[in-house]
Amino acid sequence: MILEKDIAHRIWSDDERLSRDDFRRLQLERLQNTVQRVYDNVAFYRERFQEMGISPEDIKSLEDLQKLPFTVKDDFRSNYPFGLFSSDRRDIVRFHASSGTTGKPTVVGYTKKDMKTWKELIARVVTQAGVTQDDTAQISFGYGLFTGAFGLHQGLEKVGAAVIPMSSGNTEKQIMVMRDFQTTALISTPSYALHMAEVAKSLGIDPKKDIPLKWGLFGGEGSTEAMRNELEQTWGIFATENSGISGECLALQGMHINEDHFLPEIINPDTGEVLGPGEKGELVITTITKEALPIIRYRTKDITSLHYEKCQCGRTTVRMSKIQGRSDDMLILGGVNVFPSQIEEVLINAPGIGPHYQIRVYKKEYLDKIEVDVELKDATYLDSFAKLETLNQDIRGRLRTVLGIDAKVNLVQPASLPRFEGKAKRVIDERKVD
Amino acid sequence: MAIKQLSVLIPNRYGMLGKLTNIFYEEGIDIRAISVYDTTEYGILRTVVDDPDKAVEVLNRNGIVAMVSDIMAINPEDRRGSLNEIFHILADNDINVDYIYSFVVEKGGPQYFVLKVEDIPKTEAVLVKKGIEVVKEL
Prior knowledge:
By secondary structure, chain A is of the alpha/beta class.
């Protein structure tokens, strides 16, 4: 059980609890510097601003941010690899890149100052997730171009935790190390953590009793409340979610965004119009302290909302609600917008089946059809086909309330669906032509 | 005495039966009886093996869940009308049969029938009284 006084003590920096006025003052000053910086150094932005008739002097208030153009993922591709960089090549001390599953990867560069900021921000994220100097943290993200492993590594070292740079894969060894090194914090994707628990059990190791894990810091992919419960119960941990720019605190009231470094907005993904606090839309981020790669109004495609009330944990930084999907992985089924996370929520709460699933969407006679594979966990349903069918009907009924259309449910053997060590790919949409 | 039967979820896809029998083969488990009904996407495979406890353990290790349940087996006389009599005896005693499958353990040997009923001792008693052979072990 986490006590209120514990939550309040876990704040890394005083900059996480500035007054709203102080945040706004700081943000405006830093935004103006950033706009000037990209105007001076990045041809892409300078040309865009000029086309729109904007100069850095036009940014007189935070609201003026809305005058600036958006940056989208494609802009990274067309300026690959360094076209958006704002620093001299010789000032760059580190490169990272996205996995680039679709086309060219997105390249990120860091100056010495950027590295320092990054460490500081991750120190905040891990502190608010419960980790202290007393912890031993196992990083089960893949080390490499992907930012996750190195980012967490640096921040965890900064707070003084003992870091095990395990990287991903070789699950049996992961579990051996966890048990033998007495790991107290796990850093991984949520689906890999679930997979690890399954493997541990198959090795005769009780994840709850035999491994002293206390904290789970999950990222790299979204997860649902139900998945969090499953993780907390199987591992006996307190689980939080974090991303590159935000993270949950122990009060679990959304993900805090460090507003002294990032300026968030919520827009209507169709019109680009800026929405108010609490309204649901696409998250747009402007970096305001980056040297190597400042980005103006980057469209994340993540659907969420922003909440500015002070958090129970004592932080005053804005909180974004759990990501409810990505504007690009949203499925439209017979006219109804559905996020895979909603389907996941249903499946995880249904009896008899496990947390893993695979969705196939296809067209039959011009109609959208959806088929969901789920793993049967509880053998007692095998007593009679009638019992299996009742279970199937139950799951279908639950899905219908969310999807609006009837889904076909296939029960499959446990451990037969693919497991993912990185980002989970659970949706196969066969309707897409490309 | 009841015989142990295993029930396993079996997807209706190529190679699924072979995957299962392979596991049994490699672990030296002998299949005495097996049955699968035609279903749409998945069904239940029922099997009687020589070592049910080991079979469950082996299946679990391979990520397959299996349910163990009690069934009974009979060895009806090989003559016309024998099954007809048996089913009438069961009906007269209000015994409902969930499913039946038949098999031969040895070539040229007797043909056994597996019966899934709610109350095995009662069914056994009823049938034995009428002179039907109840099989104790497969």
